[in-house]
Write a structure and sequence with these properties.
Elements (H helix, E strand, L loop, with lengths): L2 H17 L5 H9 L3 H28 L3 H18 L6 H32 L4 H25 L7 H17 L17 H5 L10 H29 L11 H4 L1 H26 L1 H21 L6 H29 L5 H31 L9 H22 L24
Helix pairs in contact: 1-5, 1-6, 1-7, 2-9, 3-5, 3-14, 4-5, 4-7, 5-14, 6-11, 9-14, 9-15, 11-12, 11-13, 12-13, 12-15, 13-14
Length: 427
């Protein structure tokens, strides 16, 4: 089978698993289980908690001890088993721990999927910056297909969504063992110091001021990502309380409307190489932050009736908001690190975005929404919520302009040389 096709299958299933429940878990939580909003914030923080340590830890294992594709497969199989137990849980406290266990298995596979894909592409002498985005776009398509599957099957509010995710996890776990071998790149530990043996050498890149600033903003933007994942679908479901909107397609199939965001991703992913070469990492990241402001601001004033165009436009700009930071960021990390620490460096990037950032966003948003934007009857002031989020994204953009000192070079983005790192200007 063609190498690119094999990686396309990997990317498709990787995000099909997540798309089967990530956007619709809010409807299951609030409308089926009718649990509290504060507790829901804690549920979404599980991916952040897991991402604080698991991606880096598994990156170390892949860098030093176990083939990355095998470790990747084992984690997905364990995640599939955990997903099968979620529908059996009837207590929100227990639900938290089960979801956390699932996230412990799933979150490191995000960075491992990148590490495996990059490794396979390089063994085939392919260009990572040029060839990876068209492969990664199939992950977004997988997310879309999963959302449509759950929505059209009528299981957005049902526990069945977790069985769909589990089935995909088992398939990907077994498939991973058929992938080309991705052996550890650093196997000789006899002459290494303690930092190298523990796999903490990747943290040394934080000594570079630009890299440190990059990772700090990764944390802040990671918080923004969790806000839209946690509350977007629930926001649209809440319009069913308004008679004028109750029978609209937006309210009946909110996951399908939200999938426009992922459809938009497919276009923006393919545009990343051009934008990186034309504008550089600072401008591309700034575009992402401005897109987050628009994402939240348009939601604030949109509705399923005459304001539907704002909801749709919000979903379209999401593609730029998400991809122009996450995918470009992973490519940036790839070009700035040595081969022996790349898997763990990708884990560090994942730690900041989906780890500390997710905990920050989900935990604080749950408290803020419950305390300041939820009335005694449980109704939420969605306009106030989205405008607050928009103000947060705008503040990040302003701070980024001030503190991320970077001069873009007109040279095209290139792969890092084996013996060292590229200059930051080249990415």
């Amino acid at each position: 089978m063609n190498t690119k096709l094999r990686l396309i299958i990997l990317s498709f299933l990787q995000f099909f698993i997540w798309g089967s429940w990530l956007i619709t878990i809010g409807a299951y939580w609030f409308q089926t289980k009718q649990w509290s909003g504060t507790q829901f914030g804690a549920i979404f923080s599980t991916m952040g908690i897991a991402s604080i340590f698991m991606p880096s830890l598994m990156g170390i294992v892949a860098d030093k001890y176990v083939n990355a594709e095998k470790l990747y497969g084992i984690l997905h199989i364990l995640g599939g088993i955990t997903l099968c137990t979620i529908p059996l849980v009837d207590d929100p406290g227990t639900f938290f721990w089960v979801i956390l266990l699932n996230m412990i298995f799933y979150m490191p596979t995000l960075s491992l999927s990148i590490a495996v894909s990059f490794s396979v592409l390089k063994t085939q002498a392919l260009d990572v910056v040029k060839d990876y985005p068209p492969i990664r776009v199939w992950g977004t398509i997988g997310f879309i297909v999963a959302m449509w599957t759950v929505s059209l099957l009528g299981i957005e509010k049902s526990a069945s969504q977790f069985y769909v995710a589990a089935g995909a996890a088992f398939v990907l776990g077994l498939y991973s063992f058929t992938l080309p071998k991705c052996p550890p790149q650093s196997t000789n530990t006899s002459s290494q110091g303690l930092l190298e043996i523990l796999g903490l050498k990747s943290f040394a890149i934080l000594r570079d001021r630009k890299m440190l600033t990059f990772f700090l903003f990764a944390l802040l933007l990671g918080a923004a990502l969790q806000l839209t994942n946690a509350y977007g679908d629930t926001f649209l479901h809440d319009f069913d309380k308004t008679p004028a909107y109750r029978d609209t397609l937006t309210v009946k199939y909110p996951a399908i409307i939200m999938s426009i965001s992922q459809i938009s991703e497919t276009l923006f992913i393919l545009a990343i190489p051009f934008f990186l070469r034309r504008f550089g990492i600072k401008q591309v990241m700034l575009f992402s932050m401005i897109a987050w402001v628009l994402r939240f601001g348009l939601f604030a004033y949109g509705n399923p009736g005459e304001g539907l165009w704002m909801i749709i436009l919000s979903c379209i700009v999401y593609g730029m908001a998400f991809d122009f930071f996450n995918i470009s960021g992973s490519l940036f990390v790839e070009t700035q690190t040595q081969p022996s620490i790349r898997a763990s460096a990708q884990g560090l990037f994942m730690m900041m975005t989906n780890g500390f950032g997710a905990v920050l966003g989900s935990s604080l948003s749950g408290i803020i929404i419950q305390e300041y934007f939820t009335d005694a009857s449980g109704a939420k002031d969605w306009q106030g919520i989205w405008l607050t989020f928009a103000a947060y994204a705008l503040a990040i953009a302003v701070l980024f302009i001030i503190f991320f000192k970077h001069t873009h070079s007109t040279e095209p983005v290139e792969e890092a040389q084996p013996e060292g790192q590229l200059s930051v200007e080249q990415a």
